[in-house]
Amino acid sequence: MIRLAPGAHLDESELIDSILINEEEQDFYVANYERFREFLNERELDILIKRHIVEPPQTLEEVSVCYGITKERVRQIEK
After folding, report:
1. Lowest mean pLDDT among 18-22, 41-45, 51-55, 59-63
2. Displacement of CA 39 from its chain's centroid (Å)
3. Contacts with 43 (C-beta within 8 Å, 6 or more apart), sequence order
């Protein structure tokens, strides 16, 4: 899912690039899921799934509310 700021727009080539990048990122997370399980705890793994694997991905806000943590903490876990 591509998220744009209100009033922002992408031209056709930017939109295609953005879609391809999102698909590649999602493919990376799906392909490395088993490897992530070795190193991440259950909550960290679930956050990655919600943010990068499921369609549509959940927002930082949705994940932060789900776990009772800040959006910044969600960002830190993603990295």
Report:
1. 18-22
2. 18
3. 67, 77
Distance CA 68, CA 35 (A): 26
- pTM score over 0.85: no
C-alpha to C-alpha distance for 77 and 43, rounded to whole angstroms = 9
Q: Is the pLDDT of residue 14 over 60?
A: no
Rounded to a whole number of angstroms, the distance between the first and last alpha carbons of the chain is 19
Place of tokens 């998220």: 3
Scanning the structure block, which residue is given the tokens 């744009």? 4
Quote the CA–CA distance of 34 and 18 in Å, as a whole number. Answer: 26
